[in-house]
Amino acid sequence: METMQKSQRPKKALQNRELSWMQFNRRVQMEADRTHHPLLERAKFLAIVTSNLDEFVQVRYGRVLDKAERKPDKKVLGNITAENLRKKVNKEILRQNNIQYLLYEGIRSELYLHGVRLYPVFTMTEEQRARELSLFENEIAPNIKVLAEDAQPAQKQLHICVKLQGKGRRKARFAIVALPTSLPRLYELSADSENRYLIRLEEIVKHHLEKLFPKDTVEHAAAFRILRNQHFDLEECTQETLSEAVKQMLDKRHTGKVVRLEAEERMSEEMLGMLTERFQIKLEQRYRATGPLDLNKLMMGLYGMVKRPDLKYVPAEPVVYEELMEEDAFERILQRDYLMYHPYHSFAPVVNLLKQAAKDPCVRSIQMTLYRVSGNSPIVAALADAAAAGKDVFVLMESCARFDEDNNLFWGERLSRAGCKVCYGFPGIKTHSKIALIQREVDGQWQSVVHLGTGNYHDGTAKLYTDFGLLTADEGLTADAAAFFEKLKGCETASLEELIKAPEALQTTILHLIEREKENAENGLPSGIIAKMNSMCDESIMEALCQAARAGVRVQLIIRGICCLIPGIPGESDNIEVYSLVGRNLEHARAFRFENAGDAEIYLSSADWMGRNLYKRVELMFPVKDPACKQAVENVLRLQLSDNQQLRVRLPDGSYSLKEEEAAPIDAQDILLHQVQAVFDGTFDKGERA
Fold it and tell me: Which residue has the higher pLDDT, 464 or 4?
């Protein structure tokens, strides 16, 4: 493939990754202010924004600060200096924090009108005061603790800093009270026929501090929390010592450098200065919140506590392929391919297939990759049952799935004890592919079924994240699946013919497919690319897309999160359209359509077009071969591109704007929730829906 000369590479069309991520989080934040969402769902969007910001600070922010300190004038992606990036990131974090609390006050006021009242201590009735005292003495006080002077406060955990004056002591001292994350964030004081009165954990504790420090006078108290750097490289290790290296890395997270301090607005300058010095942070790394700290836990706690269907989305039951819930699910898949689009289709058939495989006397082996699983995973239970029944079970349980390392090590050890062969991954490269292969022997003949997906084998997130999953007995795909697992085990096998694997072949294949569309456009043949994913920041692919678009290829990108490509820049990114769909469900699927001169090819993948996915992970992209399944994916992509309720269009200035509503409102997620099979089959009529 012809490479783009350095002088030809797009400059104005590329945006910095961190700033693009900030834009994405702003889009999520905007949803908390859109009144067509039910009130408690808007509260949940606030929680998601806070959770996203926390993860950014823990994983990315420290690196931004470090680059700015070490090489402030060095240019980074987006043609800005590291120091300028630091300033922009700090400004945007501050902006989003301030908007968070403006939105919180609005939502809190609306909740008050709906009878859900977050109550301050000074307005309590005598009955409520008695309830509050009982809560403190019986449920809260036994679980909180005063930290020793040299103790390290846990990150993300709420703490109360207390200024104390002791009798006969000239100088006041400071103490820190830790509020365990196991305690609820909200407690109910009372309820009547019209209202519920709720109070925050930290307000109760602050109200009774004298009981914790009976020999001192409490002069001042305010809540705070810290965020620590959580990005640590593994120590050099082998595959055999990988799990131990992960455990050592997890220990470092408890004492990682503090990168952010959040404090209540009422905290005194003296106290804030003391904490700033203690944690050795700069002024730009601290924030005074004008409302409650940690809106993530607060809003999620509120959402779970308040049982008000009128303030939440109307539940929608997923479509279940009933024939895949029977004992002959394996035989059904031998007859035809099944494409599922979660959460619009139930994840239950995937779980059932594994459960049936564990019991089926003809099943000889189950092989599977696991990146994230739920806390009480039915997938893990089925694999353990299969091993106990004498099946040959191989599981690659990725030990380095960020923030799920503990959970994965725990379940990996359980699977090992059950008799499964467990691999915890490979040093320096994560296994992020989503694949399960089941092999049977019937009358001396081998039969294979493979599940390939774009999302994790996590029964919880499968109810919230949109992901494609393909169940097939296609001989080419099952043969490649078997070879893929042999490669994971370190065996030399034949090369993969239809599965496209990273890091060896994925990026080069994508570049080849883009180049083919470019050549078709130059030769007057039908061309076009529709690519849906979570994030895109790989420069070589973005450059190739710009080249193809300038040659006449229409490029349509549906990218929920990070997108470092700005469309519509004259001479650079003409003929490229970028969209972002943020809504009720988290768009997580990766799907790609290449026109291929009129013989369209459809691919699904576990990988985004990011450097980490293409070069530092074991990923899979796979073709959808069955004509009905191919058409179903294309129908979903076309529907999402026609959305005019939740879809945002990226403009040449880099900003995003909601599409102008046409005569007929089209909400792709809502349509899929209620008519996914009609969309799959192509019988859905947008005009009739309107």
Answer: 464
Strands 145-146 and 173-178: antiparallel
Q: Cα(353)–Cα(471) distance, rounded to whole angstroms?
A: 10
Q: Are 62 and 259 in contact (CB under 8 A)?
A: yes
The dihedral sign for the CA sequence 212, 213, 214, 219: negative
CB atoms within 10 A of CB 9: 17
Q: Would strands 617-623 and 555-559 be described as parallel, antiparallel, or unpaired?
A: unpaired
Match 């019988």 to its residue by tokens: 683
Torsion angle of the four alpha carbons 326, 328, 332, 338, in this order, in degrees rounded to the nearest 10: 40
Which has more pLDDT, 1 or 655? 655
Q: 159-166 and 647-650 as β-strands: parallel, antiparallel, unpaired? A: unpaired
Q: Give the mean model confidence (pLDDT) for residues 572-589.
A: 97
Separation of alpha carbons 117 and 428, rounded Å? 50
Q: Can you tell me the mean pLDDT for 9-19?
A: 87
How much is the pTM?
A: 0.95
Identify the DSSP state of 60.
Answer: I
Please give the Cα distance from 537 to 615 (Å, whole number): 13
Q: How many CB atoms lie within 10 A of CB 144?
A: 17
Q: Which residues are catalytic?
A: 432
What contacts 373, CB < 8 A, 6 or more positions away?
379, 380, 407, 408, 411, 456, 457, 458
**How far is C-alpha 236 from the geometric centre of its chain's CA atoms?**
28
- The dihedrals phi and psi of 464, each to the nearest 5 degrees, come to -125, -30
Q: Return the C-alpha torsion angle 377, 382, 383, 386, nearest 10.
A: 160
Confidence at residue 689, expressed as pLDDT on a 0 to 100 scale: 46
- Amino acid identity of residue 216, one-letter, is D
Residue type, 438: I
What's the one-letter identity of residue 153?
Answer: P
- Confidence at residue 690, expressed as pLDDT on a 0 to 100 scale: 38
